[in-house]
Design brief:
binds nicotinamide-adenine-dinucleotide; eight-stranded mixed sheet; single chain; globular; alpha/beta
Length: 306
């Protein structure tokens, strides 16, 4: 796919998934503003892209504030003349169960993921509407936001909020030809190495250079950051002009469209429901087939191979 002439910002692109997105966009011809809080990683990412014949500049700043969002969009315009694609990827984890979660654990995650997505998307939308030639907002969510995940109340809330914002902004920006989609990625990175069942598998693959086992790529839908980057290139391209308001999963060998929550069972009581009537109707009516929740954890590798 040819992205020549397009300009993209990728937040948190010094390493991991963001780095793969920035490299893939540059390889397809886009000029890229690389962003990270880690100055060394951001500089190296730019050097790597430029050495491969691409165009990139770095902005070292923490995503979250309006100042950083404005600096990112400002840099795109100053260096490359415009902005076509905003990928809000920067992220952190502060995992712990509800009763142990501190205010700062909660606020830090909300600041980077939820506020960072809001401020960067807003700055991009202002620029794209002024340009008048459409654009792409690619917001990065997570399976945790879709299903909930043990120990990730802060992160799941932020990532679910990001999908809600994608659906809302897809409506608001339709007239400006700006598409807004949420990506639900899974890939082997420093972040997924913090999940105990995946850590030894990822480390083994890094040590030997062998690909992740087929069951990980297929059943778990987890592969390399480059596997996910193809979706970002598609969403940045003309080929996805009609794709908006969607939550799209990708990882390893798997591509998926996530469903939008909708009412699954309904019942009506004339004049409204009393608590007693709800209790009576729950077991046989609306609540008879409750929804599942949480991300199912894979079996331990030994059990899986047996
Ligand atoms: N790895 C996965 O399987 C997975 C799954 C679902 C969602 N995600 C999401 O994808 C994104 C990237 O994840 P990853 O696995 O590559 O993580 P990672 O930890 O490998 O990389 C994240 C990058 O973001 C940078 N960063 C952190 N806070 C920042 C801030 N405030 N401003 C700018 N940069 C900041 C870090 O320095 C790092 O370079 C995150 O939003 C994450 O929640 C990842």
């Amino acid at each position: 796919m040819d992205l020549s002439g397009r300009v993209a910002v990728v937040t948190g692109s010094g390493r991991g998934l963001g780095l793969a997105y920035a490299k893939a966009l540059a390889e397809a011809g886009a000029a890229v503003v690389v962003n990270d809080v880690d100055a060394g990683a951001a500089t190296e990412a730019v050097q790597e892209i430029v050495a491969a014949g691409g165009r990139a500049v770095a902005v070292v700043a923490p995503v979250g504030s309006t100042e950083t969002a404005d600096a990112l969009v400002g840099k795109a315009v100053e260096e490359f003349g415009r902005l076509d694609v905003m990928v809000t990827n920067a992220g952190i984890l502060r995992d712990t169960v509800l009763w142990k979660m501190s205010d700062s654990d909660f606020d830090a995650v909300v600041e980077v993921h939820l506020r960072g997505t809001f401020t960067c998307a807003r700055a991009a939308a202002v620029q794209m509407r002024a340009q008048g030639t459409g654009g792409r907002l690619v917001l990065i969510s997570s399976p945790a936001g879709q299903r909930g995940n043990f120990g990730q109340g802060n992160y799941a809330a932020a990532k679910a909020g990001i999908v809600a914002m994608a659906r809302t902004w897809a409506m608001e920006l339709a007239r400006a030809d700006v598409t807004v989609n949420a990506v639900v990625p899974v890939a082997a990175t420093e972040m997924t190495k913090t999940i105990p069942v995946f850590a030894p598998i990822i480390e083994e693959s890094e040590r030997t250079g062998a690909p992740l086992p087929e069951w990980v790529r297929k059943d778990e839908g987890m592969g390399t950051p480059e596997d996910v980057a193809s979706l970002i290139v598609f969403l940045a391209s003309e080929a996805s002009a009609q794709v908006t308001g969607q939550a799209i999963g990708i990882g390893g060998d798997k591509l998926a469209l996530w469903s939008h929550p909708q009412e699954k069972a309904t019942a009506y009581a004339d004049g409204g429901w009393s608590a007693d009537a709800i209790a009576e109707a729950w077991a046989t009516g609306v609540g008879a087939e409750p929804e599942t929740f949480g991300i199912p954890m894979p079996a331990a590798p030994a059990a899986k191979e047996a």
